[in-house]
Amino acid sequence: MTDPEHLSSLAKALAHPARVKILHLLARTPGCIGGDIVEAVGLAQSTVSEHLRILKAAGVITGEIDPPRVCYALTPGALSPLAALIAELDATHPGADACVIPEQMER
């Protein structure tokens, strides 16, 4: 099992529509330059910088400085632990009809 703190930081990093937009953009455009991201997302540069900082802090993206620009890319395999958790939960979800009442478990 992956560390719950790490899984939480990954989930939080994805918990904003602008960050999801940024990830989609980086998936389609490896090595995307910060200015291109600002233009594509349609938010202020300072706001995009904060979203990039959050994604980078969670290890979801990397930023390579190539003065005067910063090129961003997805970190390979960074979301694998979260994807594995989601797959596990999805595979083991019994569905609404299979709810077990604690009293029934004792019988």
Question: What's a concise summary of this model?
Answer:
56% of the residues lie in helices and 13% in strands.
Based on the coordinates given, report the CATH architecture.
Orthogonal Bundle
Radius of gyration: 19 Å
What's the CATH H-level superfamily name? Winged helix-like DNA-binding domain superfamily/Winged helix DNA-binding domain
The topology string of helices and strands comes to: HHEHHEEHH
| Helix share bin | 55-70%
Which percent range describes the beta-strand content? Answer: 5-15%
The tally of structural domains comes to 1
Keywords:
107 residues, alpha+beta, Arc Repressor Mutant, subunit A, three-stranded antiparallel beta sheet, 6 helices, 3 strands, elongated
Question: What is the strand and helix layout of this fold?
Answer:
Layout (H helix, E strand, L loop, with lengths): L3 H10 L3 H12 L3 E2 H8 L3 H13 L3 E6 L2 E6 L5 H13 L9 H4 L2
Antiparallel strand pairs: 1-3, 2-3
What does this structure look like?
By secondary structure, this protein is of the alpha+beta class. It has one domain (4-105): Winged helix-like DNA-binding domain superfamily/Winged helix DNA-binding domain (Arc Repressor Mutant, subunit A, Orthogonal Bundle). Helix content is 56%, strand content 13%. The protein contains 6 helices and 3 strands. The radius of gyration is 19 Å and the shape is elongated.
